[in-house]
Amino acid sequence: MKSSRPIFAFDPAAAVVRTHCHSAFGGPWPGFTPAEREEFIRDILASADFSEVKVVAFSIQPTCFDLIVDVARRTAIPKEEMLRRFKEFSDDMYIAVEGKRLDEGDPLAWKRLAARFGDLSQFIKNIKQRASQRYHRAHRSSGALWGNRYTRAFVQTGHPSRVLSAWMDHAAVRSGDVATPDEDRYSTFGRAVSGDLRARALVTALFSEEGEDHPWRSVAKVYRDFVAGEVAVPFRQRDPKGRGVPLLTRREFLLSEVPHFRGGVAFGDRAFVEAVFELNRQEFGAKRATGARRISGQNDPDLWTIRNKGDLRKLRD
Predict the structure, then answer these.
(1) Total tally of structural domains belonging to the chain
(2) Considering 38, 59, 80, 225, which has the largest number of Cβ atoms within 10 A of its Cβ?
């Protein structure tokens, strides 16, 4: 019997797996306050440092979050370092119970601790639990805060990651909370504009040449040129039902809701998506011959997913 939640495989030769994760509130809960969003960002970064998960980009909205993270396939941390991080990161009550077992050399306790390193599911579980507990204490409420575990999709490094990161930075613009991504203090670029050094390092790593260190002003210019720029090689898309309807520009694309990001399994150029499809062919119908599906309605030739969620121009209507 197939699982209701397929576990998709990624290139076994890859040392690092880059993934886009999304989760949202499951009911009519009041959204996070600005202070709670700040706390959530701190939790994400602290949890990432603890568990050897590298945050690439983030966007924390009042009732949902989007993350791009890198997870190394092999994580080897000495026991002394695991114990140090555990006692530095965990709350006093948990340390009193689990820490005692670790100090006594309980093999099951050490197995539980080791499982928290280099594991995406454990990382997401940890940040959501912390946010839920703090939220319910502050609002004097109880119940399931999050509507699902989380959706995830593999993301190709380079250009596709830059597009996705910029799209995440425009979340508050799409919702009408701010006029430009510069004003959103809860996403990577907006936080970098405000002077946050860690956010600036994340944007620099994505939008500057690999291995090169650039001044923030030049990186910000590259980012803004990227957002405003047109695709270098226009792609003419066959669209028998929508002839005469222009394709979305990059700016229009970033201002559109793109369901492909949150349920498309993989996001990247055609070769990248086809490779993911081949590894997971058993999860799709027997008649399906190819995996890559273009994100319809936009003009970037290097943006493909496995699941086609519809033409963006029609989704906006």
Answers:
(1) 4
(2) 59
The contacts of residue 206 (CB under 8 Å, 6+ apart) are: 56, 57, 161, 162, 165
Closest CA relative to residue 268, chosen from 10, 4, 7: 10
Each residue's pLDDT expressed in tens, for the chain with a length of 317 residues: 344 566 788 888 889 999 999 999 988 899 999 999 999 999 999 999 988 899 999 999 999 999 999 999 877 788 888 888 888 888 778 888 888 888 888 889 888 888 888 889 989 999 999 999 999 999 999 989 998 778 899 999 999 999 999 999 999 999 999 999 999 999 999 999 999 999 999 999 999 865 567 789 999 999 999 998 765 444 445 454 555 567 888 888 999 988 888 776 899 999 999 999 999 988 888 888 888 888 888 878 889 999 877 767 766 54
Between CA 200 and CA 193 the distance in angstroms is 8
**Same domain? 201 vs 241:** no
Q: Is 137 in contact with 91 (CB distance < 8 Å)?
A: no
Residue 2 lies in a domain: no
pTM (predicted TM-score): 0.88
Clarify whether residues 54 and 86 are in a common domain.
no
Strands 64-72 and 16-24: antiparallel
